[in-house]
Amino acid sequence: MEPEAPLISFRLDPRTGVAPYRQLVDQVRQAVSLGMLRAGDRLPSVREVVTQITINPNTVHRAYRDLEHEGVVEGRPGLGTFVIASSPSPMTSEERQVLLDELRHWVIRARHSGLDAEGVAALMAAAVRTEDPAPR
Amino acid sequence: MANGGSGWYSVRCVFRAQTSKPWGPPDLAVGESAYEERITLWRAESADVAIERAEEEAHLYESRLEVEYLGIAQSYRLEDEPGEGAEVFSLIRRSTLAGDPYLDTFFDTGAEYQQNDES
After folding, report:
1. Does any CB of chain A come closer than 8 Å to the CB of residue B39?
2. What distance separates the 2 farthest-apart alpha carbons in chain A?
3. Is A78 in the B-facing interface, judged by CB distances under 8 Å?
4. How do the domains of chain B map onto residue ranges?
């Protein structure tokens, strides 16, 4: 039986300076936290990722291994790599889209105010910290 | 039974690829294989545990990279914490070969692919 198509497509941004394996890890973690990936979903195979983006296959393996250590995914030899973690509060795609649209408007305003991408991210992180002051 | 005691272990495993893929040697001829040696690092209570964990990882690597794990796992216990200049693997082999023929036979056959090679 053909495996179902993976639910995530990776992209690499060389401008960020973030290591490629870390970008893959972050994209999976973000997709899980947003409920776009749920427990049981299959990540793309190394072959699928390598044919989609220019990346060393060992880098994909390393990213998946890190995600395994973090308890986000589980590798099953011969079957693939599957998500085992779930978002604590998965939202619907409609709810996610509404929030995303609001956020885009906010980002546009922030950029017009002179903030660069790093500044936008810093301000967002500060807002999250203010709203969620749980000790780390 | 546990051996070696708790610490850092490197484990060398060997893999074989028999078909060309979008990665690796792109020009495997019929009947030719590509062999890869990988050394992974583990903090474990014993060599046995390190090998067990390395082989679990080897089976995932085998599956993901579409290669065959050849079932050999050789461990080495590091003397210290891994760091700059640390000896991370050592293996001694007896041979009747002189230096250059030994290198040509096992390390520099002319068919090696290293990280910086185009692949």
Report:
1. no
2. 53
3. yes
4. 7-80+90-106
Checking ipTM against 0.85, whether it exceeds it is no
Q: How far B98 CA lies from chain A's nearest CA (Å)?
A: 35
User: Token digits for B10?
Assistant: 């490197």
Neighbours of A72 (CB within 10 A): 22
Q: Are residues A70 and A102 in the same domain?
A: no
**Over the stretch A67-91, which tens digit does the pLDDT of each residue have?**
999 999 999 998 999 999 887 776 7
Cβ of residue B19 closer than 8 Å to a chain A Cβ: no
Residue numbers of the domain that contains A52: 14-83
Write the pLDDT tens digit of every residue in B75-87. Answer: 999 998 999 999 9
d(CA A69, CA A33) in angstroms, rounded, equals 17
In the three-class reduction of DSSP (H, G, I as helix; E, B as strand; rest coil), residue B64 is classed as helix
